[in-house]
Design goal:
Rossmann fold; 2 domains; binds adenosine-5'-diphosphate; binds magnesium ion
Length: about 450
């Protein structure tokens, strides 16, 4: 399948070639022709499958003819977050460079004055987050009855973020004769309902899940107690040859606290979460890319819009609530050639969430055990090193603060003494670990591993 077979204009094909794309992804191949034929579509495909271009490309051709009018955008794309909206706009700029299309981006955190000015001059494509659009609509700064085309992107995210009532409100303001497209990674019932209400006889395009777990990624789960999570994480960071890692947590507060805790233990870590503005997120990402820090603690929403791929490790400090997010998270490791490692710490509610992941991926994630310890596999002659907790070769093998150095050794020694042979089924860690951050670990390190044997 070739882009040229899809019915796109020569100008557009040229921009696509300049972008370096040689062939359409499956969702693009299936969505582009019906969009060009002005059909309503529902596009369901996992994150990272190229859904953006599957509507941006045909839209550029569809919007190529027609005239702009003040206050009345000709098309509207709704995206759940500022980052995603900005990414869609970038796509329009990249592929639309040979076309004369006016874009406007209506997102929070940007001066409203400029946005209103752009609307007054007339736009072909309005890309907006629901909140800001509603705001301007209610102030009478925008009219939606000239909108011939509507895209609801990342619909399942919209649902997560509580935007469905806003979307319904907005849909009701658009002309009935419009073309509507809805894209989503999953179709939970409220999204099905939304599609039924606002799409007309849509063509449903469902791209089967890509091999959900890439074979270059080795994934493990680790049953722990909630209060052992940080200790376990630090142990892994120091022992598993971590070069670069993203640590995902489900809540913003966890992201912040975990980052602080890691820094206090001498790790070179940073954070991105939804409370940070876009420029601080990009700044933090740049520090990560430049190697200034090698660990990034992130929330799903903050990480979603950012291009972070090819890390050596992904850690799920919490199991994501949506099993799709698991696939998306661990997909950030597993670089070409190099094997990526993904660890999920499972405590309390995580157990149910990880069971859902296993159901979705149709495979059981193995429990991390002695035989999986990297230091043993990669450094066969490092027995003594392992005992002193210095096995890893990554940046963090040596904690940066001198005061921290004593702690792991103390723990490791204790481990050596108290270690029992590993049971065949991964044993649950012992529960008697008081005050982990005080450095007191009464059981083996890290609880479930027979490190003395490494
Ligand atoms: P989704 O919305 O499905 O999560 P995106 O549209 O954000 O996915 O695309 C994911 C990545 O794939 C982007 O980096 C994009 O540049 C790239 N991509 C999209 N289409 C193609 C293609 N045809 N060939 C190669 N890369 C592509
Ligand atoms: Mg997308």
């Amino acid at each position: 399948m070739n882009f040229a077979d899809l019915g796109l204009s020569p100008d557009l094909l040229k921009a696509v070639a300049d972008a370096g794309y040689t062939e359409p992804t499956p969702i693009q191949a299936q969505a582009i022709p019906p969009v060009l034929m002005m059909k309503d579509i529902i596009g369901i495909a996992q994150t990272g499958t190229g859904k953006t271009a599957s509507f941006v490309l045909p839209m550029i051709d569809v919007m190529a003819s027609g005239r702009r009018r003040a206050l009345m955008p000709r098309s509207l794309i709704l995206a759940p977050t500022r980052e995603l909206a900005a990414q869609v706009a970038e796509n329009f700029e990249k592929y639309g460079k040979n076309h004369d299309l006016k874009l406007a981006l209506l997102i929070g955190g940007v001066q409203m004055g400029d946005q209103v000015k752009a609307l007054n001059e007339g736009v072909d494509v309005l890309i907006a987050t629901p909140g800001r659009l509603m705001d301007l609509f209610e102030r009478g700064k925008i009219l939606l009855n000239g909108c011939e085309l509507l895209v609801i992107d990342e619909a399942d995210r919209m649902l997560d973020m509580g935007f469905i009532p806003d979307i319904e409100f907005i849909c009701d303001k658009l002309p009935e004769s419009r073309q509507t497209m809805l894209f989503s990674a999953t179709m939970p019932p409220p999204i099905e309902k939304l599609a039924k209400k606002f799409l007309k006889n849509p063509k449903r395009i469902e791209v089967s899940r890509a091999a959900t777990t890439n074979k270059d990624i080795t994934a493990f789960k680790i049953p722990v107690q909630q209060r052992q999570k940080r200790e376990t994480l630090r142990w892994l960071l120091r022992h598993d040859q971590v070069e670069t890692a993203i640590i995902f947590a489900n809540r913003k507060t966890t992201v912040r606290e975990l980052n602080k805790s890691l820094q206090s233990h001498g790790f070179a870590s940073g954070e991105i979460h939804g409370d940070m503005d876009q420029s601080s997120r990009i700044k933090e990402l740049d520090r990560f890319k430049s190697g200034d820090i090698n660990i990034l603690v992130a929330s799903d929403v903050a990480a979603r819009g950012l291009d972070i791929k090819g890390v050596s490790h992904v850690f799920n400090f919490d199991t994501p609530w949506h099993p799709d997010d698991y696939v998306h998270r661990i997909g950030r490791t597993g670089r070409a050639g190099a094997k990526g490692r993904a660890f999920t710490l499972v405590a309390g509610d995580d157990a149910e969430a990880i069971a859902n992941v296993e159901k979705l991926t149709k495979s059981e994630i193995p429990v991390f055990g002695k035989k999986d310890v990297r230091v043993e596999l990669v450094e066969p002659d490092s027995k003594s090193k392992a005992k002193t907790d210095r096995g890893g070769s990554g940046k963090n093998s040596e904690p940066r603060k001198a005061a921290d150095k004593a702690k792991p050794e103390k723990r490791a020694k204790k481990a050596d003494q108290s270690e029992k042979p590993a049971k065949s089924k991964a044993p649950r860690p012992k529960a008697d670990h008081a005050a982990e951050d005080a450095g007191e670990w009464n059981g083996p390190v890290p609880g479930f591993l027979d490190v003395s044997a490494c």
